[in-house]
């Protein structure tokens, strides 16, 4: 029996059978592969307009992460598992030098993937995401010091999300989203995705990202990287300073500031598409 099972596993590996992933994927278009990773609590649909812009030239692999927007949750650690699964997905699908585009948490994930596997991708676009979100206000903060604080107790934070009243949750999130996107319809859509998300996943991923510092790790990245930030504290100069602090050890980078809120691709799509086209078309 053991010999038979070993034979089956060996044949499966030789045939290139892909292992299942915890995230969902929608593939659209033809050409060089582009992997689009949404941000915290969002569906891959957040990239619909971007996919429409790219699909005639690129094959777009749009992810929705586990526990977000109706996708089934997984056990912790969530983000590290997703990182490794995306790497495996690229290899299993034999995607040759894909481009990674990530927003917010998705940008963090793109940095983490590219740091762990520097030769895996050809280009990286980080849309309003950083390698250590907790240090945006104070670059001297360490992940170790944060983990000791009660407010970063992952189980407690997850339970706090569970305890939020369901009947008012979506409306409250929609109101808060107006600080991150200018259009109220978009705010309601983002809030709906959040309402469809697993509450514990919302808590655990928030703590995992907040206590993971990859500012040193990104020095390993070799792919040309475009970093686009929104207006932090309504100041372009503040955005530039913070992004240069966060990305200090990443050498092949271009930093741009969008005069928008957090969802840059929603607030100014014409400018956004122009910048990513210029970056993707450059020979580097």
TrEMBL record:
This is Alpha/beta fold hydrolase. Pfam families: Abhydrolase_6. InterPro entries: AB_hydrolase_1, AB_hydrolase_fold, AB_hydrolase_sf. Residues 1-18 form the signal peptide. GO terms for molecular function: hydrolase activity. Keywords: Hydrolase, Signal. Residues 34-272 form the AB hydrolase-1 domain. It comes from the Bacteria.
């Amino acid at each position: 029996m053991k010999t038979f099972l070993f034979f089956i596993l060996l044949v499966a590996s030789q045939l290139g059978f892909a292992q299942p992933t915890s995230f969902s994927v929608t593939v659209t278009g033809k050409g060089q592969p582009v992997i689009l990773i949404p941000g915290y609590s969002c569906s891959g649909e957040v990239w619909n307009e971007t996919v429409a812009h790219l699909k005639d030239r690129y094959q777009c692999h749009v992810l929705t992460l586990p526990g977000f927007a109706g996708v089934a949750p997984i056990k912790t650690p969530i983000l590290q598992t997703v990182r490794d699964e995306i790497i495996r997905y690229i290899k299993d699908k034999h995607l040759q030098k894909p481009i990674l585009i990530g927003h917010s948490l998705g940008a963090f994930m793109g940095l983490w993937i590219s740091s762990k596997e520097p030769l895996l991708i050809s280009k990286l676009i980080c849309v309003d995401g950083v390698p250590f979100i907790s240090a945006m206000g104070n670059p001297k903060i360490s992940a170790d010091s944060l983990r000791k604080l009660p407010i970063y107790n992952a189980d407690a934070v997850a339970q706090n999300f569970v305890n939020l009243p369901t009947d008012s949750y979506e409306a409250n999130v929609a109101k808060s989203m107006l600080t991150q996107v200018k259009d109220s319809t978009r705010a309601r859509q983002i809030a709906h995705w959040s309402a469809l998300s697993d509450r514990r996943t919302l808590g655990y991923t928030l703590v995992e990202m907040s206590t993971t510092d990859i500012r040193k790790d990104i020095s390993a990245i070799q792919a040309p990287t475009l970093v686009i930030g929104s207006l932090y504290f309504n100041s372009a100069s503040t955005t530039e300073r913070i992004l240069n602090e966060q990305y200090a050890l990443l050498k092949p980078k271009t930093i741009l500031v969008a005069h928008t809120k957090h969802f840059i691709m929603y607030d100014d799509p014409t400018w956004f598409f122009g910048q990513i086209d210029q970056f993707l078309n450059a020979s580097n």
